[in-house]
Amino acid sequence: MALYQEMTKEQLSKLLVNLEAEYTSYKAKNLKLDMSRGKPGADQMDLSADLLCAVPTSAEARAADGTDCRNYGVLDGIPEAKALMAPLMDVGLDEVLVGGTSSLNLMFDCVARAMTHGVVGSLRPWCKEEGLKFLCPSPGYDRHFAVTQHFGFELISIPMTPQGPDMDLVEKLVASDEKIKGIWCVPKYSNPQGITYSDDTVRRLANLSPAAPDFRIFWDNAYSVHDLYPENPDILLPLLPELKKNGKENMAFLFCSTAKITFAGEGLAALGASKENLAQIKASMAFQLIGHDKLNQLRHVRFLKDMDGIRAQMARHAEIIRPKFELVLSTLKKELGGTGLGSWIEPKGGYFIALDVMEGCAKHVVALCKEAGVVMTGAGASSPYGVDPMDTTIRIAPTFPTLEELGQAANLLCLCVKIACVQKLLAA
Ligand code: PLP
Questions:
Q1: Burial level of 293, CB count in 10 A (0-12/13-18/19+)?
Q2: What is the tens place of the pLDDT at every residue in 45-59?
Q3: I want to staple 336 with a disulfide (CB 3.0 to 4.6 A). Which of 26, 129, 310, 342 is the partner?
Q4: CB atoms near residue 146 (< 10 Å)
Q5: How many CB atoms lie within 10 A of CB 17?
Q6: How far, in Å, are 172, 178, 211, 338 from residue 201 at the CA level?
Q7: Are 118 and 125 in contact, with CB atoms under 8 Å apart?
Q8: Alpha carbon nearest to ligand 1 atom 5, residue
Q9: How far is the CA of 247 from the centre of ligand 1 (A)?
């Protein structure tokens, strides 16, 4: 396909007439499609139908150690639930706490706790300091950024590279500014680009020398087993062992959940941390609640069993969502490949594809899609403060629509990219 940037104004104007005619016919279809949030489809959740009755009677509501899961107690999770969740974060059984149904909730609480009570190594509450800052690899997960914005942090954007966050910049900033209290990381199949951090990136993160004694890496391994090609997965170097090698094991909080393994919003979340960190967290959490939902823990253990069970479940998910990713990627390639209008990374897992369009066009593309009945994640959502300074990144969430809907939505998206970019080129 020809590079649009090399076309004459006459060629572009002629093209635009055809593109707009095509757009009008799309509008007449009255589409109502949603590619905005990374939700699993109903068919994916059907894979976990048996979870609903995995603890069918009171007699079966006991944990292996005899704990009656219907009753109060066990703040950090029943042992078999810890055994289920720990490998998802590559931590030991004494380095895991099983929480409620949301890992985001655990992350929020870790920030809140640090704000009011500090962290191991510096019990001075973060909130006692002015001008707090947090590093936000961007594009990234909007809800991460929102948590730290909510607590009043200045969000510092860190460019993502194909190996993870720009580590030269991260190292320089954290070493020189004690107001920087942490960094958000989605280390495997990052949201939204699907990037897995390289070994070198993990090692450099594990060896940071922050000016702030209370600096923490928030390691959200939300997509640790979410491989689209289970026979050829990305491999992430485990963080905690690397931290231990450097004697810096208190520098990270790790998170995961089964949101996209079993039920989204109704799964099982877990936190991984050094023993010292966990002790501080549990001491504070004991004021918050008596114990999380142990019946849900038991249901998950009975249903998923172990890592083999999880991998088998994820292979079934991959069967459903791989064709969706492949459809979007092949449409992008067919419609936008070689045009110079967009670029993207082909993720091997996770829940998203990030499309970078010509600078200054993303918002317009998303607005055009919306007008024709396809809701995309708001342009800018993947950037701190919801503002993409280049107005270039569009997050595509292919899992929720059906294949047929997705085909229409992906074609429309490409059409809108062409229209917005051609208009921009004509205006230049
Ligand atoms: N972390 C990342 C990177 C996500 O993309 C999402 C959901 O999209 C979550 C966390 C939410 O996880 P949970 O449902 O466990 O709160």
A1: middle
A2: 999 999 999 999 999
A3: 342
A4: 17
A5: 9
A6: 14, 21, 19, 31
A7: yes
A8: 191
A9: 29
CA-to-CA distance for 227 and 350, rounded, in angstroms?
Answer: 7
Report how far ligand 1's centroid is from the alpha carbon of 332 (Å): 26
Q: Is the CB of 191 under 6 A from ligand 1?
A: yes
User: Which residue bears the tokens 């289970």?
Assistant: 230
* Residue 15, ligand 1, Cβ within 6 A: no
User: Judging by DSSP bridges, how do beta strands 133-138 and 180-185 pair with one another?
Assistant: parallel
DSSP 8-state secondary structure symbol assigned to residue 366: H
Joined tokens for residue 349 = 């897992």
Say how many C-beta atoms besides its own lie within 10 A of residue 73's C-beta: 11
Report how far apart, in Å, the C-alpha atoms of 60 and of each of 49, 67, 205, 268, 291 are: 18, 11, 44, 19, 19
Does the beta carbon of 104 lie inside 6 Å of ligand 1? yes
Atom of ligand 1 nearest to the CA of 265: 14
Tell whether ligand 1 has an atom less than 6 A from the beta carbon of residue 141: yes
Give the number of other Cβ atoms within 10 Å of residue 34's Cβ.
16
220 lines ligand 1 (CB under 6 A): yes
Specify the DSSP class assigned to residue 320. H
Residue 363 φ/ψ, nearest 5 degrees: -60, -45
How far is Cα 399 from Cα 320, in angstroms, rounded to an integer? 9
Q: Which two tokens stand for residue 203?
A: 């090692």
Taking the centre of ligand 1 as the mean of its atom positions, its distance from the CA of residue 222, in whole angstroms, is 6
Q: End-to-end alpha-carbon separation of the chain, Å?
A: 22
Helix, strand and coil percent figures for the chain, each rounded to 5:
45, 15, 40
- Look at the pTM and tell me if it is higher than 0.85: yes
The 10 Å Cβ neighbour count of residue 230 is: 17
